[in-house]
Amino acid sequence: MLQPKKSKFRKAHKMKPKGIASRGHQLAFGSFGLKSLERCWVTQRQLEAARVALTRFMKREGQSWIRVFPDKPITKKPLEVRMGKGKGAPEYWVAVVKPGTIMFEAEGVTLEVAKEAMRLAAQKLPVTTKFIIRPDYVA
Amino acid sequence: MKSINITGTLRKEISKQEVKNLRKAGKVICVLYGGEQNVHFSAEALQFRNLVYTPHVHTVHLDIDGKTYTAIMQDAQFHPIHDNIIHIDFLEIKPDKNVTIQIPVKVTGAAEGVKAGGRLIQKMRKVQISALPAHLPDNIEIDITPLKIGDSVRVGDLKKEGVTFLDSPNNIVVGVRVTRQVVEETPAAAAAAPAAAAPAAAAPAAEKKAPEKK
After folding, report:
1. In chain A, at which end, N or C, are there fewer CB atoms within 10 A of the end residue's CB?
2. In 10 A of CB B129, how many CB atoms?
3. Looking at residue B116, what is its pLDDT?
4. Which of B81, B107, B177 to mutate to test the interface with A (most CBs of A within 10 A)?
5. Distance from CA of B214 to the nearest CA of A (A)
6. Could you give the number of structural domains in chain B?
């Protein structure tokens, strides 16, 4: 699963992602992409599940890219522990996704294959998404 | 190069509110620069369909309140969520001034390497060129017929009269790669063939010549 090799600080504030994506909203590598229409935290597990679904359907043909990276640590307090006594221990990592962010890209497969692969990947994600194609794409 | 006509109207006032109103009315905000002075105008979004959503490159004949300009599309901005066109930059072109533009690559022919089981990989869809407007080609045509497995055409191999290629000469435009199937077949074939076949196999490799470019 994706996670940073090292981090400057162990724990991060929650923060609220505001506005819409001002970067990472255009296709940069492939002809097809999966764009988020909502804001959310996508966990490393969800990203991995989506990646597996995507590459399995593409049958290792073509190439795919993950455009987001889970670099925000999320903490959790142990079960049956009273409130207080400080912030919990880091539990997992998430990627902060704003509306408009492209999460996955694909290339080297047909439009139909890419569409179905992205649909399967989207089912593993906690947001509504849309399938996008490069404006100058020719089948 | 093919051309497209676009009719626009000058913007009355340059303000955020005006931009919002124009976009609500289905118009795209545009700017034309490169001439004596910048021209801010708006045009119907539907007119840009054949200019933006196509792999081809066009010159644009702009008619802005009766005044005509010849330009190329320099940049297009899209809404992050809806992907509507929100802004377009045009660069005015003059007959005696070089233009820098990205031209699509057109691949023709059937590569020998592909027939032998290789896979055609197109690394670059467009190449950046500099040329006078009269010399601007519709596309850069590359004949891939002589490409064998492992061969490639680089930017440095491309030649066209009156055109300067601005990308790094080492960049691969199109090539034929070895697929997994070919790699698997090769050791089996080598084992079956007699030892005398080895010099014979080396001969075609020596004959391998640079692919033909246009």
Report:
1. C
2. 23
3. 87
4. B81
5. 23
6. 2
User: Domain extents for chain A?
Assistant: 32-133
Contacts of B125 in chain A (CB under 8 A): 136
ipTM of predicted complex: 0.89
Percent of chain A predicted with pLDDT > 90? 91
Q: What is the pLDDT of residues B115-159, one digit of tens each?
A: 888 888 888 889 999 999 998 999 999 998 988 888 899 999 998
Domain A32-133: give its CATH code.
3.90.1170.10
Whether residue B197 sits in one domain with residue B157:
yes
d(CA B143, CA B29) in angstroms, rounded, equals: 40
Same domain, B105 and B184: yes
Q: Across the strands, what pairs with B142?
A: B107
Q: How confident is the model at residue A44 (pLDDT cuts 50, 70, 90)?
A: very high
Among A26, A99, A138, select the one facing B81 at the smallest CB separation: A99
Residues B133 and B80 in one domain: no
Q: Which residues of A touch B81 (CB under 8 A)?
A: 20-21, 25, 35, 37, 99-100
Indicate yes or no: CB of A20 within 8 angstroms of CB of B78.
no
The domain boundary residue, chosen from B58, B93, B128: B93
Q: B212 in a domain, yes or no?
A: no
CATH number at residue B132: 2.170.120.20
User: Could you tell me if B55 and B104 lie in one domain?
Assistant: no
Q: What is the mean pLDDT of chain B?
A: 85
pLDDT of A65-113, one tens digit each? 999 999 999 999 999 999 999 999 999 999 999 999 999 999 989 999 9
